[in-house]
Amino acid sequence: MYLHSYRISNYRRLRDVYIELASDISIFVGSNNSGKTSGTQALYAFASGSKDKFSLYDFSSACWKDFDDLGNLEEGGREQPRPPSITLDLWFEVTANDLYLVMPLLPSMTWAGTQVGLRIEFAARDSVDLLEKFRTARVEAQTKAAALEKRENEKYVPWPKSLTDYLKDELLHEFEFKYFVLDRSQFDEAHKPQKGYEPVPLGKEPGGAAILKSLIKVDNLSAQRHLADPAAGTGRYEDLSKRLSRFYKRNLDQRQEDHSALRALFDSEMGLNEHLADVFKDTLDRLSKLGYPGLHNPRLEIKSDLNPATIMSSQDARVHYVLGDGAEALRLPDTYNGLGFKNLIYMVVEILDLHAIWVADKEQRAPLHLISIEEPEAHLHAQLQQVFIRNVLDLMKGGEEDGGAFQSQTVVTTHSPHILYERGFQPIRYFRRQNIGGEQTTEVLNLSAFYRQTPNERDFLQRYPTGISAKVSVRYLGDLAFCRGASDVGRRCDGASEVSRGHSRW
């Protein structure tokens, strides 16, 4: 089983976006502020089941006008529309062996497809009650404001000025998650529902949140990995030693019977105790002659306390970089290595840790683990970028046996042409910014379809990123895909023409 695709509605600039994923790795590309990060954060926020991950600012800009129009409707007038909600449709590709995992999501006993769907809405708990509370709060505030002493050119407007103003403070009290079963037969090829289709709400037992948690675990490796040198005194910082200490502690908890490690600590503790006794002998002898510290003159003793759980977290063990071999090797603290190498190690440790946590869940373990990695190219030389993206799937191998019941998926957001060249164009999902009626939105193009349908352009694009103008090739790819997506196959966009001319010059 894997996550085939998902549709996001009303989330930031993703007004209504359908994203199809590859079964192993998908690569999100696009210009800055095109919605790539939102496309991964939406998955993470919904899968977490925590309302705290949402605020009013997560609603698309067009929703704000809809909220305020709703708040300004007269009470008791025509039937009032529902407040906008943020919606996520998840579509899982399943096989016959996976059916036992998705039984609660089967739309009927006659279901015979390969995809099951789950809709999660972040929606108003009770639309009528929400409007009543808002109107009551507004009337009370206006009454109290009217009783204040009048001032010349008075501009004060009390809270809540509008429904959006009310929801900035009260959203988490008024909104909740709602879960629905989706029927694939009621959706078209792009997974858009037929007009008038209403999905079936999931019952309270076991509940939509529990079902979602039993199917998928989503983790996010943010682009903000804060690897700056603390000595610079600016920015946030976490050195590799601290990160590795968390990794050590988590894995130690799972290996309580690792007696080889415990014996090594015991031997070290014995040697350290002998050293401490020798160093402090004279001082402690003098203290004992003073009758200190108690009535019965107890003897002081200083001993080590090497706790396996704290030996790294207390920074008694640190990461060093070793240059050379043998006795002549030079060892440098991790702060003395370049940001690129630290970033690479940090990402690898983070991925291994997230994967290990998923594997360790055992009976509570979801069959699908999706990790999104933002901008792995940060600080990395081109060759290291290619090494990372070439091997990232191997990092998450292990724990996926059991006849394929467990599977990992990866989503990478990137601006790097080197990563694109290494993986090819089939995993690319191109986020293209749009301005429709003054509203900033995004559409997502699945370039695996473009790859299959246009062999001539495909061959050119596969060769072109090896040259100097690799970044322009990505633009060419996006422009071509947009033209074809707009059914304008016979015409090349300006960007594509520019690249073709540039290619002939090179």
Main β-sheet: number of strands, strand sense, barrel status? 6 strands, antiparallel
Q: Percent range for helical residues?
A: 25-40%
Radius of gyration: 29 Å
**Euclidean distance between termini CA atoms:** 45 Å
Poorly predicted residue ranges: 227-238, 290-297, 464-476, 480-506
Give a count of the beta strands, DSSP E runs of length 2 or more: 14
Q: Give the H and E element order.
A: EEEHHEEHHEEHEHHEEHEHEHEEHHHH
If strands are numbered along the chain, what order do they take across the biggest sheet? 2-1-4-5-6-7
**What fraction strand?**
15-25%
Overall average pLDDT: 78
Number of helices: 14
Helix and strand composition category: alpha/beta
Indicate the overall shape.
Answer: globular
Structure overview:
The chain is of the alpha/beta class and 506 residues long. It has a domain at 240-318. The protein has 14 helices and 14 strands. The strands form 3 sheets. Strands 2-1-4-5-6-7 form a 6-stranded antiparallel sheet. Strands 8-11-12-3-13-14 form a 6-stranded mixed sheet, sandwiched between helices. The protein has a two-stranded antiparallel sheet with strand order 9-10. The radius of gyration is 29 Å and the shape is globular.
